[in-house]
Write a structure and sequence with these properties.
Order of helices and strands: EHEHEEEHHEHEEEHHEHHEHEEHH
Largest sheet: 6 strands, mixed
Distance between the termini: 17 Å
CATH superfamily of the largest domain: Glycerate kinase, domain 2
Strand order of the largest sheet: 3-4-5-6-9-10
Helix content: 25-40%
Number of strands: 13
Radius of gyration: 22 Å
C-alpha cells in the first residue's frame, strides 16, 4: 500500500512538515509495512519557504533586513539544491510583523524584501522564487526595487521616501545603479490573484483596508499607483499595471517586471512542480491532503483543491482531505476531486484547546480515516 501525504500547515499549530509527519505516524500505526511519501506543501504564500526547504532538503539563510516600517529585524529565505532561492514577501514585508495599530498602508515599504533578494543575488543565486501574499505594503514594489539599486526621483532629483503615498511625487526612474549581480537573474512569481495594480479591483481598493487604509487613503494610494504606472509605461516602456496579478502584495510585481525576466504562475502548481508531485501520484493508492481550515475559499488556489484536482488529472486515485476545521461551502469542493473531508476536532472545545491538542487530534483523525480506507480495501478484495 502506497500513501502520498501532501498537506499544508495548520496555521498557528502545526507546520506542513509536522502535519505530514503526524499523518505518517498514523499510517504506520494502522499498517506498519505501508509505504509513505511525504510532501510538505504550501500555496505560494506564508509557509512556502518552510515547505520547499523541507520537501527538497534545502537550507535556510538568515539575513538582517528592515520590516515594513524600516525597523531592523532578521528574516529568512531558503536555498534549494539547484541553487535557486525561495522567498516569501511576508518574511520581511508582512502584515504579521506589525501590531494592528502600527499598520500604515501609506508608508509601509517592501525594502526588506528587496534586501533578502539582494543578499541572495550577492551570494550567487540566479533564480529567485518569490511567493506573494500577506504583505503590509502598497508601494508598488518600489521599496524592493530601491534595495536593488533602482532610484525613484522627484522633480528635484531627490530619492522618494518609503511608501506608496510618495509615488505621486515620482518624476524619474533611474536604473544606473542596479545591482550588477542582478543582470542574469530570473524571477518565478507565485501569485494566485488576478487583481491589477489600479482601479476598483486594484491593490489599494481591495487590499488596502486590511493594511490599515481608510477610504480616503485608498483613494490617495490608488491615484499614486496610477501615476507610478504611467511613469513606468512612459520611461521604461513597461505596462506592468495591466498585468494580471500586478495588484498582489501591494503592487509588488511592478518593482520586478520592468527590470527582470519574470514568469508568473499559480503558487500551488509551482510547489507541486518543484516537488515532483505528478510522479509520486503515479504510484499512490491513496492521497491525503489538508490545511488548517477547509471551506469554499479553498477552491481559490489553496492546497487541498490544488492537490486533488492535479492528482485526478493524472489518475483516478482517492483523495482525502483532513482539516482542523470545516467551514461554509466545504461540500462544494467534492467537484474538484476531493473524495472525503474530515475535521480533527473530536468534540466541543475552545479554539485554544483545539490548537494546543492539534497534533494528537490530527493523528487520531488520520488513524480513523486510514482504518476506514483499509477496511474498505479489504472488503473490496474479498
Amino acid at each position: 500500500m502506497n500513501i502520498l501525504i501532501a498537506a499544508d500547515s495548520f496555521k498557528g499549530s502545526c507546520s506542513a512538515r509536522e502535519v505530514t509527519d503526524t499523518i505518517e505516524r498514523a499510517a504506520n500505526t494502522v499498517l506498519p509495512n505501508v509505504t509513505v511519501t511525504k510532501i510538505p506543501v504550501a500555496d505560494g504564500g506564508e509557509g512556502t519557504v518552510d515547505a520547499l526547504v523541507a520537501a527538497m532538503n534545502g537550507t535556510k539563510v538568515c539575513v538582517p533586513v528592515h520590516d515594513p516600517l524600516g525597523r531592523p529585524i532578521t528574516a529568512e529565505y531558503g536555498l534549494l539544491p539547484d541553487g535557486s532561492a525561495v522567498l516569501e514577501t511576508a518574511a520581511a514585508s508582512g502584515l504579521t510583523l506589525l501590531k494592528p495599530d502600527e499598520r500604515d498602508a501609506l508608508h509601509a515599504s517592501t525594502f526588506g524584501t528587496g534586501e533578502l533578494i539582494r543578499h541572495a543575488l550577492e551570494h550567487g543565486v540566479k533564480k529567485i522564487i518569490l511567493g506573494l501574499g500577506g504583505s503590509a505594503t502598497t508601494d508598488g514594489g518600489a521599496g524592493l526595487a530601491q534595495a536593488l539599486g533602482i532610484s525613484f526621483l522627484d522633480k528635484a532629483g531627490k530619492e522618494l521616501a518609503p511608501g506608496g503615498v510618495h509615488l505621486s511625487e515620482l518624476a524619474r526612474i533611474s536604473t544606473d545603479a542596479l545591482l550588477k549581480e542582478a543582470a542574469e537573474c530570473e524571477f518565478v512569481i507565485a501569485c494566485d490573484v488576478k487583481n491589477r495594480l489600479c482601479g476598483s479591483n486594484g491593490a489599494a481598493a481591495i487590499f488596502g483596508p486590511q493594511k490599515g487604509a481608510t477610504p480616503e487613503q485608498v483613494r490617495i494610494l490608488d491615484a499614486a499607483l496610477s501615476h507610478y504606472a504611467s511613469i513606468l509605461n512612459d520611461q521604461l516602456t513597461c505596462n506592468a499595471a495591466e498585468t494580471d496579478g500586478s495588484g498582489a502584495a501591494g503592487g509588488l510585481l511592478c518593482g520586478i517586471l520592468p527590470y527582470f525576466p519574470v514568469t508568473i504562475c499559480s503558487g500551488i502548481d509551482l510547489v507541486l512542480d518543484l516537488t515532483d508531485f505528478d510522479e509520486h501520484v503515479k504510484h499512490a493508492d491513496l492521497i491525503i491532503t489538508g490545511e488548517g481550515r477547509i471551506d469554499y475559499q479553498s477552491a481559490l488556489g489553496k492546497v487541498p483543491v490544488g492537490v486533488a484536482s492535479r492528482a485526478k488529472k493524472i489518475r483516478n486515485v482517492p483523495v482525502v482531505a483532513i482539516a482542523g476545521a470545516k467551514g461554509d461551502g466545504c461540500e462544494t469542493l467534492y467537484k474538484f476531486g476531493i473524495d472525503a473531508i474530515f475535521d480533527t476536532v473530536p468534540g466541543i472545545m475552545s479554539l485554544e484547546a483545539a490548537m494546543e491538542h492539534a497534533k494528537e487530534n490530527l493523528e487520531q483523525t488520520a488513524e480513523n480515516v486510514l482504518r476506514l480506507f483499509f477496511a474498505g480495501q479489504e472488503n473490496r478484495l474479498r
